[in-house]
Amino acid sequence: MSYRTNLFSKMVILILIMLVPVVLLYWYSNHKTTAVLRDELNRSNSNQLEFFQNQVNTHIELLSSWPNLLIHDPDIASFRRIYADSKYFDLDTINLVKRIQNKLSIQESSSNWTTKLYLYSPTLGRVVSERDAGYYDQQTLRGNISSGWNVRKTQEGEDDKFIFSWITVSPYGISDPAANAQTVIKLEFDSDNIRDMLDKFKDDGRHDPFYYREETGVIYNRTSDRALTGELMDNLAIDKLKDVDNRTVVIDGEPYMVNTVKSSTTGWYLVDYMPLSAILKPIHQSNILFYSAMICLLLMSFAVAYLLYVQVQVPVKQLIRGFQRLKQEDYSVRITPKGRNEFSFLSERFNSMVAQIQQLFEHVYLEQIHVREARLKQLQSQINPHFFYNCFSFITSMAKLKRVDAVVAMSHNLSRYYRYTTRQERDVVPLTEEIEFVTCYLEIQQMRMDRIRFKIDLSEDILSQEVPPLIVQPLVENAVIHGIETDAEAGEIRVSGEQRNGMMILTVDDDGQGMDELARQMLLHKLTGGMDQEMGCGLWNVNQRLQLRYGEQAGISIMESPLGGLRVTLSWPADEEHLLE
């Protein structure tokens, strides 16, 4: 009995020795993972806030450039040379005002923000806007003139409203511009434009973004938690904020991760926050499950240790001998069950397992084939056109110009383009269909850029080949985007192909800026590795799909084009059956 107890004790001690390091390693790993997760979330949130802040700054800087452009307009220059003794304008002056109002209207409508432009003439004492022309208060204008963006609050209460204004004076550097300047142009927009962008930013997955400036106020999104935001601002006001800041703020015992980015254009801070509990809750739940599982495992191990000694030792040895013979590929091995217990069932299952091993091998092989096909589908699904917004921008512009023919042509080509990409369910398609799709894409780009010229030179034998869908369009798209759009003198694209030594060769040439030898070698090296965000997924995707379907002999090569740009070549084994046809 003492021998049995001693063996049981040794097994318990061994179990403890195994479990304690696991728990300690898990605790250390969890601690490090939490720290890394917080750092990565802070970095990710800061990057997203900086990107959004740059979008807003770019829009505001674009708006601030309008007055500088308008002040040099010939009609506005003519307007500031008018001297009127009468309170009424003559017919020529009225027509001039109408033209100025039309230009102000066009400028305002060029942005998706709601803006207002005002033209002041101190010599006339008149102000012209999009819809009105009249007199103005010189003292009020004098109070609004300041350098940079002027912000004033126009509505108090639950939804504060701010007016942002930018004033340009001609000539520059004059004293008392409200009385002495020849022309003053003022641009205004209200904070509802920024609030709209905050709402869209929040819809993209942000928690509760808002703009904050200590001496001015707060611009909330429309579904903001005002009470929580107020407490958060009180905490932020304690320590001076940096241009890019990440900190943890505790409110009512709840820690919040707060990220802030300062606008270099307006001086406002973009702030976003989220409760740490929402981020770390899955980790805490995982910890509870793990420690609970460790306790249960420990208790169960004590019981199993005793049962192993009493009932399992001999049957296990028999199973070990059977597995050793199985390891030696002796599939004739069988175990004779003794009694009617768990091990008799296990012995029967072992015998059944040996008989089914061959079937299992075949099943694993089929699963590998399915995984390979699934990866093909997944790689194919990554193909995604990048010019969707450009096409709709073209349609919008043509509609404003009442170019119905251009709108119809673009819409027709765009519908054919997306019908091919979204309804492609076949593993392979005739190359002629792929080329029709490429032609449709080039016609769309040709409508956008008149300088694009393309030529497709493929024989009927080549067009009859079956290829994976969407393998030619990414090459043509790269030629347009990286070759032609970046070179104002470029515009020619040529698609050609031939059969050579049992291989199909399809080439896309352009006369764009091209790449030097080092850049081409670096790009080819990237194609053989993992997908790089800087490179994009187009070329990498095509190369991977060709090699998965046709093997290592298929793929992409890149060299200098006779046209002066880049030549990208696809090669894959020819389908002899289609060539014979």
From TrEMBL:
Protein name as annotated: Sensor histidine kinase
The membrane spanning regions, by residue number, are 7-28, 288-309
The taxonomy runs: Bacteria, Bacillati, Bacillota, Bacilli, Bacillales
Domain HAMP: from-to ranges: 310-362
Q: How does it sit in the membrane?
A: Multi-pass membrane protein
Respond yes or no to whether keyword rRNA processing is given for this record: no
* An example Gene Ontology molecular-function term: kinase activity
Alphabetically sorted, this entry's keywords are: Cell membrane, Kinase, Membrane, Phosphoprotein, Transferase, Transmembrane, Transmembrane helix
Its annotated compartments are: Cell membrane
Q: What is its main location?
A: membrane
Could you confirm whether the keyword Phosphoprotein appears in this record? yes
Name of one Pfam family that matches? His_kinase
Among InterPro entries, the record links this protein to:
Bact_2-comp_sensor_kinase, HAMP_dom, HATPase_C_sf, HATPase_dom, Sig_transdc_His_kin_internal
